[in-house]
Amino acid sequence: MGVAELLLVGVVILLGLCGVLVPGVPGSWLVWAAVLWWALKDPQPVSWGVLVGATAVLLLSQVVRWALPPRRLRASGATPRMGVYAGVGALLGFVLIPVLGAIPGFVGGVYLHERLRLGRPAEAMAALRTAMRSGGSSVLTELFTCLLIAGAWLGATIWG
């Protein structure tokens, strides 16, 4: 697989990661489709392993999201800007504290947004709890899954 095709797969994965934060966009399925395309174009044992792992993690994520409360983020006052803060926080956390840092990064991003918007720490914590109960945990689950898949793809591409 050439560099241009790898870059295109990476762009589709990035679009999928952004799509997780946008309601109505099948972000996780875009990430999975990009990994499928990569595995079909470059049929190596590593690429098939990443595809099988991505499929298993994505299906597990869907089961977990099904058990969580439905998304009602708009009703709780969540804005697209909050999604950006949460997504950037999760990405930074994922990079700075490998893999598990995405969870505190996501929560920290939501808290930072609410702290800047509301001003007081107690009000920001209350808004954070409301956002996480109203569907933020579902978004976090899907984003964390997509970050895991993207990290596995990137690792397999660089070192595989």
Descriptive account of the structure:
By secondary structure, this protein is mostly helical. It is built from 7 helices and no strands. The chain has helices spanning 3-20, 27-41, 45-67, 73-76, 80-96, 102-118, 121-159. Helix 1 (3-20) runs antiparallel to helix 7 (121-159), helix 2 runs parallel beside helix 7 (121-159) and helix 6 (102-118) runs antiparallel to helix 7 (121-159). The longest helix has 39 residues, at 121-159.
List keywords for this structure.
160 residues, mainly alpha, 83% helix
Count of β-strands: 0
Give the overall form: elongated
- End-to-end separation in angstroms reads 13 Å
Cα gyration radius (Å): 16 Å
Order of helices and strands: HHHHHHH
Oligomer kind? single chain
Overall structural class, as computed from helix and strand content, comes to mainly alpha
Largest sheet: none
Q: Percent helix among the residues?
A: over 70%
Mean pLDDT: 90
Query: What percent strand?
Result: under 5%
Tally the helices.
Answer: 7
Low-confidence stretches: none
What's this entry about, in short?
This protein has 160 residues and is mainly alpha-helical. Helix content is 83%, strand content 0%. Helix 1 runs antiparallel to helix 2, helix 2 (27-41) packs antiparallel against helix 3 and helix 2 (27-41) runs parallel beside helix 7.
